[in-house]
């Protein structure tokens, strides 16, 4: 889950690679996967589709026990809001979801009103701040 990802676990990221344009996505799911390499497109074994992944720099160390690297993978499931806007996540978002606009290499990202599918808060309305919905 994204809430369990810490900045030190992703400190060796040097780039995020997006396989799809994220402008129209309210959220993406993120997870730390154990992968055999620092770079390159990882295999994908979930339902749904991979949206992107992180590349690690040369100082990233493999696990001593498994020889694998922990890399972030970004993905969506078939029942997520992008394909079922009135479905399970019409409002709210999965625990591991973050707004892709808040992501960068080495930055874990966070939820926003947009990713939660809700209207702007009263404070945002009073300040005249709007998020694209």
Automatic annotation (TrEMBL):
Keywords: Plasmid. Residues 85-133 are annotated as: Disordered. It holds the Pfam family DUF6009. It comes from Streptomyces pratensis (strain ATCC 33331 / IAF-45CD). InterPro entries: DUF6009. This is Transcription factor.
